[in-house]
Design a protein that fits this description.
The chain contains no helices and 28 strands. The chain has 323 residues and is an all-beta fold. The radius of gyration is 18 Å and the shape is globular.
Length: 323
């Protein structure tokens, strides 16, 4: 299992490249994201000898909280940070040692507080990014322009996560510290299509099933993961139990309809199958501090990456899943 240590940085998010099966991006922060700078790590890893190679570091003046890579351009990555900005980085500069090569190609600044999540939709002719913030808003952007296309205000507290539906055009979900899951159409900024009090605690993460357009799930500070069917939105279709503390991030598998991975504040990464049981198939204690970031590879079946506040990044295959 390849493992990497981000020295003096605490991991917030990890993402696989959409183009290179052995490339990973990590968003990290000094001092647990409470103060100090942020670092974007570009890492190449090898399954053969369980090794990591640091390809490049990009530095930003504030902590980095999330990251996403383009689905259309293998060289473009966008990060978000505590100063309310989004930064677009060009990997073409990896072999360039000049000072300018370490600067973002574009900076998007409209949010008034920390930006906590970023998502990217590139289907057909659409090319949109979605940011959610502690300023209670969600913004839709065309990455080619530094002015947002639309702002969505519907939550009463911090918006932790906003994610495009991969199967329903022009639709995204958002979750917040107010306990609500909301479904939006990008063309209607005034109010969501649907709104549901999904947890009593803060809702920290949401994701859509990659095979059934009606299914999505939420992870909360109450330690629960709940799934919902859009056709019967009022009642959870499943509830997954087994996390001791907050569920920081969840993500549906890109290969199996009912498989979900989660990472949380109890330091465990867990694998679930809601069609089989409401208990985890596997619980892996990868971290000694809060688990924060998680991503499935789209290019290698059942390969996962996670990161946490203990500065560790892991790439692995859960033993409960067939490779």
């Amino acid at each position: 299992m390849p493992t990497y240590f981000t020295t003096n940085r605490h991991g917030y998010a990890v993402r696989f490249s959409r183009f290179s099966p052995d490339r990973l991006y990590v968003a990290s922060s000094q001092y647990y994201g409470l103060a100090g700078a942020g670092t974007l790590y570009v890492l190449d890893f090898s399954d053969d000898d369980d090794s990591f190679k640091e390809v490049k570091q990009f530095s930003w003046s504030d902590g980095l909280f999330d990251i996403i890579s383009s689905e259309k351009d293998p060289n473009i990555v966008i990060s978000v940070s505590g100063d309310g900005t989004l930064q677009l980085w060009n990997m073409d500069s990896i072999n360039d040692d000049s000072p300018l090569s370490n600067l973002p190609q574009m900076i998007y600044k409209e949010h008034k507080k920390e930006v906590y999540s970023i998502d990217w939709l590139s289907v057909r002719s659409d090319n949109y990014i979605l940011s959610s913030s502690w300023d209670l808003s969600i913004k839709l952007w065309d990455p080619n322009f530094t002015t947002s296309l639309c702002t969505y205000n519907g939550h009463s507290k911090i918006v932790y996560n906003a994610v495009f539906s991969p199967l329903i055009p022009n639709t995204f979900a958002s979750v917040s510290a107010d306990g609500y899951l909301k479904i939006w159409n990008v063309f209607n900024k005034d109010k969501p299509i649907a709104s549901l009090k999904s947890h009593d605690g803060e809702v920290l993460s949401c994701d859509w099933c990659k095979f059934d357009q009606n299914i999505l799930a939420t992870g909360s500070s109450d330690g629960l993961i709940r799934g919902y069917d859009m056709r019967h939105f009022g009642v959870p279709m499943f509830e997954l139990k087994g996390c001791d503390y907050a569920v920081r991030k969840i993500q549906f598998s890109p290969f199996e309809i009912s498989t979900i991975a989660s990472v949380g504040y109890d330091c465990y990464t867990r694998i679930w199958d809601f069609n089989r049981t409401n208990e985890p198939l596997e619980s892996i204690k990868h971290h000694t501090d809060f688990g924060y970031g998680l991503d499935w590879s789209r290019l290698k079946r059942n390969q996962l990456a996670d990161c946490g506040w203990d500065s560790l990044v892991h790439v692995f295959y859960p033993s409960c899943l067939e490779t």
